[in-house]
């Protein structure tokens, strides 16, 4: 066999192995392949963001308490729901599922909607404290009866936002959590401690290591 034939044979075998590995990888995926845009799975309880975030205007962070201070926004425990629902619609079949979750000390198995690849690092806190609205990435959640992934959330989509934000020299207010002394000043009318927090110009990174750590 000549060199050209050997190279062709090796290339064919490599292509075959790559195809087999790709098939195995896809077979192991638990959700839609690619960017999951439009993914809207059924949940164990028919929770409506349109009612809670829309009609009653509940702050997102009442349920997703980690959004401003953690990498993960978090999913509320069933006991958080029951803060209201021990009195509100407590006879509803859906609420009874939540009450049973609390009584049995067994968390509800919510289906994750927004899922980034394991090799992509994302921090909710850095985005929320920069003034980014939840709807920027998650779409009009206050109108959704069932949560859906609206945006593609691909690398290119994220990079476009970072580049446009940096180019526009967007000014962001400081994080909402007050510094020591500010709460007292707000409640008593006393002068706030100096120096005051100043707005900052956002400079979101676009280098590889920021998201691929």
Describe the structure.
This is Cytochrome c3 family protein. With 213 residues, the protein is mainly α. It contains ten helices and two strands, in the order H-H-H-H-H-H-H-H-E-H-E-H. The chain has a domain at 33-75 and 110-179 and 200-205. The protein has a two-stranded antiparallel ribbon. Helix 4 (78-85) crosses helix 5 (93-103).
CA-to-CA gap between the ends? 45 Å
Strand order of the largest sheet: 1-2
The total of helices stands at 10
Strand content: under 5%
Q: Which structural class matches the secondary elements?
A: mainly alpha
Counting DSSP E segments of at least 2 residues, the number of strands comes to 2
- The helicity comes to 40-55%
Q: In one word, what is the shape?
A: globular
Secondary-structure element sequence?
HHHHHHHHEHEH
Oligomer: single chain
Binding site for heme c 4: 137
Pfam families: Cytochrome_C7
GO molecular function: electron transfer activity; heme binding; metal ion binding
Protein name: Cytochrome c3 family protein
Give the topology, please:
Blueprint: H1 3-27, H2 49-55, H3 60-63, H4 78-85, H5 93-103, H6 124-128, H7 134-138, H8 155-167, E1 171-172, H9 182-188, E2 200-201, H10 208-211
Antiparallel strand pairs: 1-2
Helix pairs in contact: 4-5
Relevant terms:
213 residues; mainly alpha; 10 helices
Summarize the structure.
By secondary structure, this protein is an all-alpha fold.
